[in-house]
Amino acid sequence: MDARTVLLEARGEAKISQRELGRRSGVPQAAISRMERGLVSPRADTLDRLLRACGRDLEVVDRAGAGVDRTLIRERLRLTPAERGRLAVVEWNRTRPFARTRWG
Predict the structure, then answer these.
(1) From the CB of residue 32, how many other CB atoms can be counted at a distance below 10 Å?
(2) In terms of domains, do 72 and 31 share one?
(3) pLDDT-derived band at 104, boundaries 50, 70, 90
(4) Model pTM greater than 0.70?
């Protein structure tokens, strides 16, 4: 979910105008309007300030490692160095059809 959507939802649930949100947060109403229209993205501290003014908190989520298939990593680590080397050659050769051609 992007900052624009989060901000629109928070302000809608708080039932306050952009002007009131600006008064509560110290962020100019014009800046809030630009954020809600998706013209600019607020910095994390500004978004946090706006959400707090709406009675919400900004939750930071660490996505490091998200979407990594650790099974494949474990399988490869079980191989000997020689087996990993042979596998690397096989995989490299499979990429040949995708190699760029040189334009003379």
Answers:
(1) 22
(2) no
(3) very low
(4) no
